[in-house]
Amino acid sequence: MTETAEHPASRKVLDALERVFAAEIDGRLPFQSKARIYKELCDDGMVQPMERTFGHGWSAATVRGYELTQAGRMLYCASCDDGDVT
To answer: Which regions of the chain are under pLDDT 70?
Structure first.
């Protein structure tokens, strides 16, 4: 369920989005997980399936996982504390 005024994003959802965001920042996409929450986030449009192929020919390896959508990135970033900037 996506965030609305009546249903703000839960800590569980934000934690899951944070893990994908951290993988994105660290250059470790696609984020791999079999946790059910990522399927739910995919259904809600917060993450999307992603695959990346390493190598080529007979030795190529395809890695499948998730990446944030713009909606997921905005939801996660909007929840972050700006901190005290002086």
So the answer is: 1-7, 83-86
